[in-house]
Amino acid sequence: MSWRPQYRSSKFRNVYGKVASREHCFDGIPITKNVHDNHFCAVNTRFLAIVTESAGGGSFLVIPLERTGRIEPNYPKVCGHQGNVLDIKWNPFIENVIASCSEDASVRIWEIPEGGLKKNMTEAVLELYGHSRRVGLVEWHPTTNNILFSAGYDYKVLIWNLDIGEPVKMIDCHTDVILCMSFNTDGSLLATTCKDKKLRVVEPRSGRVLQEASCKNHRVNRVVFLGSTKRLLTTGVSRWNTRQIALWDQEDLSMPLIEEEIDGLSGLLFPFYDADTHMLYLAGKGDGNIRYYEIGSEKPYVSYLMEFRSPAPQKGLGVMPKYGLDVSACEVFRFYKLVTLKGLIEPISMIVPRRSETYQEDIYPMTPGTEPALTPDEWLSGVNRDPILMSLKEGSKKTSKLVFKTPAREKKSVVVNGIDLLENVPPRTENELLRMFFRQQDEIRRLKDELSQKDIRIRQLQLELKNLRKSPKNN
């Protein structure tokens, strides 16, 4: 039997990436040099937020999308955190509200004024304290307004109800640092990857682990739900230290459906999934390229399409929501690429080449919009509801009229599931102990230097005094 290549017809086979011209980029930005494995970037239809390098605390920039070009060095910042900012996410239903988390063990909610910042913002509308160590991840619930998830280095995931400004649930099933969180379409399930090399599917309201995979051959780093297909995709490292992806059935994590090696590079692979086009984008940290695939319901499940190439390495990538895309140009995805070496943010549009200038309904189905499907009380009581869909056709887009109301609350102990989170501090990790040890060594070295300088000064004074005593008195 002769070998024959398999050809697939796909409307997305010729999708190509188009980099915005220099005047439509954001230049002169001191992008953070933090090595934490996050994107350090968040974008919506009004603002672009980027974590910046700063001294004496953490800060990030919030720039209106129309303000492209070079950004002045003294441009106003959001700078209320006492430690480095590790993650930022825009509220999907209120476009001027953003959540940030930091090494100072806090999560903060900021309300950006209309038109952007005119001066440095230091006061958050809400400060959330419940983690006993630094907080590495924040995620908004996909269908419920004012429900926020945060994952800290205390191995806990806290669920915050921002209507009351308090944590209402705690997920305490992890034994190490949580690396990634992802929701399914209606937000009834949460998938997490952890440094303990396990992939978990959790029911968030009860904290019950529904499925768990111990990934020995495939060390997982990132996970993403593939829309409503009841499948998960993870990126990680094989036993031979090559980058690979794995596809899982969310109801049976005993074995992956497929495992596919990507390359032998060392940078973390970030997965992005577009449920409308069933396209998967893979972007490596430190790489210049973005690979894209089409996800199918039958084997081989994952089909390679093409690759966008660029010589500039990316530190992270922000993604524009679907309702912010340019449908007249057949744009199906848009990245905002952080180029640290140049202090540059490059918009990259993924475009389906079409000759017709009319609205292309086959590549723009109804998509989740800006209206929440549930209130926090409804979701916490056990109700699940699919997101409210909207059309991307010109004239059909609706803007959300929700506003953020700051809850009135008193400072008190944070008790969830009968446990005071601020009193029960878990044992420190090996890395934290090492950092403490080196910090103490530096402090000891500094004190020794100070004592040595003082000792030298004392000897100099003693010598001067001795010389004065030996010299004849002046008449």
Give me the secondary-structure topology.
Layout lengths: L15 E4 L6 E2 L13 E3 L3 E6 L5 E7 L4 E2 L7 E4 L3 E6 L6 E6 L3 E6 L14 E4 L5 E6 L6 E6 L4 E5 L4 E6 L6 E6 L6 E5 L3 E6 L4 E7 L3 E8 L5 E8 L4 E7 L8 E6 L5 E6 L4 E6 L5 E6 L6 E7 L8 E3 L11 E9 L4 E8 L15 E2 L7 H5 L8 E2 L24 E2 L2 E2 L9 H41 L5
Parallel strand pairs: 2-6
Antiparallel strand pairs: 1-30, 2-30, 3-4, 4-5, 5-7, 8-9, 9-10, 10-11, 12-13, 13-14, 14-15, 16-17, 17-18, 18-19, 20-21, 21-22, 22-23, 24-25, 25-26, 26-27, 28-29, 29-30, 31-32, 33-34
Quick tags:
475 residues, disordered N terminus, 10% helix, repeat, coiled coil, mainly beta
Overview of this structure, please?
This protein has two helices and 34 strands. It has 475 residues and is mostly beta strands. Among the domains are: 13-172 and 311-414, Methylamine Dehydrogenase, Chain H (7 Propeller), CATH 2.130.10.10; 427-463. A hairpin with a 6-residue loop joins strand 16 and strand 17. The chain is globular and about 105 Å long. The protein starts with 15 loop residues before the first strand and ends in a 5-residue tail after the last helix.
